[in-house]
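User: Teach me something about this protein's shape.
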Amino acid sequence: MKILQWIPSMFLAIIPTVVFADDAYDAVTAGLGRAGSEAGYVTATSFAETVAGLIDVVLSILGVAFLILIVWSGFKWLTAQGDSKKTQDATKMLVNAVIGILLSAAV
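Assistant: First, the predicted structure itself:
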């Protein structure tokens, strides 16, 4: 029972650590940007770099979606309990997920 009394105290002790991390991040990135511009590095990005960053984000989201579809189809397959229709649906979902990730990787 005493352990349950310590859990809220430990949680409250961790919260300020997370808050202070945000302040340090802003200070460090501002200092890095200033140091880079003083050293002669260009801080502005070109249109091509912006598009490349956008493509990176989209591919990351597609990767997460692929992972979710694979896990979901595996869950459906395992919980089919011998029902052939449910197994076929899970297999179809798995095949469609693989085809989708191959098409997005080909682009």
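Now, about its shape. The chain has a mean pLDDT of 83. The CA atoms of residues 42 and 69 lie 41 Å apart. If you'd like, I can walk through any region in more detail.
User: That's plenty for now, thanks!
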